[in-house]
Write a structure and sequence with these properties.
alpha/beta, 252 residues
Length: 252
């Protein structure tokens, strides 16, 4: 059976979480090509804990050493680079510390086929690193307490977050968004590969972007909206998103 979807993952040395990530792809129930890119590709190839997926997962090398510093420009460049290895009709990205729920990919493929959109996206359930559910009472991606509170307030007012619930209801919003918080996390997307290659990733990050933790996925979402490309959401939280990790970073 032909594989129509390519899943791309970047990793350094978080093997335990990578195993969880890979297993979630294998449980999708449809043929998927999974490519894992790493500067430590040789070590991963030799790690016996990954023997279970040798026949189902491709491990590709990245040049250089594991990155330190602002992650978003680096991840934009890595994602753009990885697209050159994709020949499948659809492509998505799954960080090494996150998981897909069963049926995630098939639900998005169904939406794309039925609604004839360029990309489909899900919501995500937030979890702490120990696997417990996020409490929904804060905005966890900004270090300044007052700024984080303002962002959390907006998310609640816009319906992106609900107090006491762990789900991020990502996607376009119908209310003013002065802080440009509405987004779709990169892990939630399934793209038409040809169109994503055509529009590309944005590598230009200002100091303001870096201070405010603007991600490459935020910039991509803004570009998709500015181009008025057709997208649709599933309204289901089928990504398990673990807080506290940044892909392609050393953990020690």
């Amino acid at each position: 059976m032909n594989k129509e979807i390519c899943v791309i993952t970047f990793t350094v040395d978080r093997v335990d979480s990578l195993i969880r990530c890979i297993k979630s792809v294998l449980l999708q129930g449809i043929p998927v090509r999974h490519i894992v890119f790493s500067e430590n590709q040789a070590q991963l190839t030799a790690d016996k804990r990954l023997d279970f997926c040798r026949d189902t997962t491709d491990f590709f090398p990245l040049e250089g050493v594991p990155h330190r510093g602002p992650s978003s420009p680096r991840m934009a460049a890595l994602r753009q680079h990885a697209l050159s290895a994709v020949s499948e009709r659809y492509v998505c990205f799954l960080d090494d510390d996150n998981e897909m729920e069963s049926g995630h990919l098939s639900s998005l493929m169904t939406i794309m086929a039925q609604q004839q959109v360029f990309a489909a996206y899900s919501w995500r359930s937030l979890l702490y690193s120990d696997g417990s559910q996020f409490d929904g009472m804060s905005y966890p991606w900004h270090s300044d307490e007052q700024e984080a509170y303002k962002r959390w307030q907006w998310c609640v007012e816009a319906g992106v977050m609900v107090q006491g619930q762990p789900v991020m209801r990502d996607g376009p919003v119908s209310v003013p968004d002065p802080m440009r918080l509405a987004t779709v996390d990169m892990n939630e997307w399934l793209f038409d590969t040809a169109v994503l290659k055509q529009i590309g990733l944005d590598f230009d990050f200002s100091e303001h972007d870096l201070i405010n933790r603007v991600g490459e996925d935020d910039k991509l979402f803004a570009r998709i909206q500015s181009l008025h490309l057709p997208i649709a959401g599933s309204g289901m939280a089928t990504i398990r998103y673990y807080l506290g990790g940044v892909s392609n970073y050393r953990t020690n």
